[in-house]
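INTERNAL AUDIT FORM
Audit reference: QA-55
Scope: verify that the stored structure record matches its stored sequence.
Auditor: D.O.
Record contents follow.
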Amino acid sequence: MSDKTVAFAPALLASHCVIDVRTPLEFAEDHLPGACNVPLLTNAERIEVGTLYKQQGALIAKERGLQLTCHRFPALVASIARLAAGRPILVYCWRGGMRSESVVTLLEGCGHQAVKLTGGYKSFRGFVNRYFENFTPSAPLLVLHGMTGSGKTEFLHLLAAKGWNTVDLEGLAHHRGSAFGSLGLGKQPTQKRFETTLWQAFISCKPGKPIVLEGESRRIGWLLLPGNLYDVMDKAHKIWTDVSVETRVNRLAAEYAKQEFRPQMKNALERIRKKIDGNHYPALQHSLDTWDVTGLAKGLVEHYYDRLYYKVKKWEPAMTISLEDYDAAEQQLSDYARKLIKAPA
C-alpha cells in the first residue's frame, strides 16, 4: 500500500478532489479552497463522541463513532467517488486523525486513490498564517486611495474584467469599511474564512504583473487584515483617485438607492449620530425618511465622510488619477505600472 498521507501544498488543490469530512459547522467556519463537505459525523454526533472521549476515554468514543457511522459507509464512498470523477482524492479532518484516516481506508478498500492531509485542516491553517505573518507580495502593490464615493471598487472590478491582477478586500470581507459598508453584501465571513479566501486571491494573481487593491484600515467591518498585510500596503505604491463631489454623490446615491437597504441605512445613520454635528443630523434623517437618496448622499459626504476620512494625509501619493473616466484612469494606471515593472530592482 502506498503512503496514505501528504503534507499540504497549494498544487494539491488543483490535482486532487478535496474532501472535508468534518461537520457542517466546522466546514462553514472555514475550509480548504474548492473542498466538498462530506461529513462523517453530524454536528450533534461530534459533540457526543467528543464528550465520551473526555469522560470515558478513546476506546469508548471510537466504538460509539463506529456505531453512529458504519451504516453510512457505502453512501459516503459513493458520494465521494461521484465528486472525484476519477481524480485522486485528498481527505482531511480537523487534525488528520481518525475521521480522515477512516475515510481514506474505506476509499482505498474500494479501489479509489486517496490520501489524507497530514495534520488536517489545522496544518492548512498554519500554512495560511505563515503566509501572512511575513507577507511578501509576488509583484508590486498598487493601492487605490480616495474619498468615499470615488468609485474605487467599481474601477477595481473593471480592471479585473480586463485581466489585471486585483484583490477585492471589501468584496472578500463583505463590507466596504464604512458606516454603510454592509449594505447589500450579506453577512461577513469568519476571520478564518476571510483569510483563506484572501490567501487564495493573492496566490491566484498572475506573476510579473502589479496587484491592484483598495486602501483599507486594519479593520474591515469586524474583520482584521491578517499578519503584516496592512503594513506592506502602507509602504506600497499609493494611488490617489481624484473625483468631483458631484460625481461622488451620484455614485453613492446609485449605490444606496435600493428600498431593501432602508432598514439597514436607518440603523447605520443612528450609529454615527454622535459623529455628525447635531445641526445637520435632522436633515440627514429627513432625507432618509422621505427617500431622498441623493440628498442623503450629499449630506453624508459633506458632514460625515469628508470630515472623518482622509482629513489629513501623512503621505504623498505615487501618482494621482482621475476616476471621472474609468477608461482614461486605466490608461494612466497602465502607463505607471509599465514603468514600474521595467524599473531596475
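Auditor finding: record pair retrieved intact. The chain has a mean pLDDT of 91.
Action required: none
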